[in-house]
Design a protein that fits this description.
220 residues, Muramoyl-pentapeptide Carboxypeptidase, domain 1, endopeptidase fold (from Nostoc punctiforme), two-stranded antiparallel ribbon, 40% helix, 16% strand, elongated
């Protein structure tokens, strides 16, 4: 085997291993006993984390700090290398059940079509945009921050072409930055609590929403 071919094979193996490691990792949005165990270990090492089983931004920051202290890639993901360094054992299979949760989110989101918009509203008597998203996800067992800008920090970014049902979509509307949020439904549509129509379905590609769209985030 020539040197050039050997180098190519090694490169392909490394890239394959990297893709597996990236996919098989605990990350923001994950929940459960495995996450609680990770948090408990971080807390025992002095990091400011609560072992509540909810992998949120604070846990990700603690993971990054731990990774930096051990010379690991500080990406905030608990993959096999980070898991082994943290807990001293092999990492279990990561099972999110994201498809089921995504379906539940969409199903629940439709139950509130027509609910009026209320600034600061967080209940079925009236929602603002982030209050609606937070309420719907909570009904599906996923707990998000209260405001659109805080929700924009959860999960990881996805391009418009990669959006999947249940992703969050963000817009810069009444102020600069992520000031409006909705839930992606597929086929270019999303559901949101809008000031003009309350909870309604809109298109990402309408002239208004397309002009102020700033990105999508995946949390499941």
């Amino acid at each position: 085997m020539s040197k050039a071919i050997r180098i190519l094979v090694v490169f392909m193996v490394l890239m394959f291993s990297f893709s597996i490691a990236s996919a098989a990792a605990f990350r923001v949005g994950d929940q459960g006993s495995d996450v609680a165990e990770i948090q408990g270990r971080l807390a025992s090492l002095g990091y400011d984390v609560t072992a509540d089983g909810d992998f949120g931004p604070a846990t990700a920051e603690a993971v990054k700090s731990f990774q930096a202290s051990r010379g690991l890639d500080n990406d905030g993901l608990v993959g096999p290398s980070t898991y082994s360094a943290l807990l001293g054992k092999s990492m279990p299979e990561v099972s999110r059940g994201s498809s089921y949760i995504s379906r539940r989110v969409v199903q629940i989101s439709y139950e509130y079509l027509g609910t009026p918009y209320v600034f600061g509203g967080t209940s079925p008597s009236g929602f603002d945009c982030s209050g609606y998203v937070r309420y719907v996800f909570a009904q599906a067992g996923v707990y998000l921050p209260r405001t659109a800008d805080a929700q924009y920090e959860v999960g990881y970014p996805v391009s418009r072409g990669e959006l999947r049902t249940g992703d969050l979509v963000f817009f810069s509307t009444y102020e600069y930055g992520p000031s409006h949020v909705g839930i992606y439904l597929g086929d270019g549509n999303f559901i949101n609590a809008s000031t003009s129509r309350g909870v309604a379905v809109d298109s990402l590609y309408s002239s208004y929403w397309n002009s102020c769209y700033i990105g999508g985030r995946r949390i499941m």
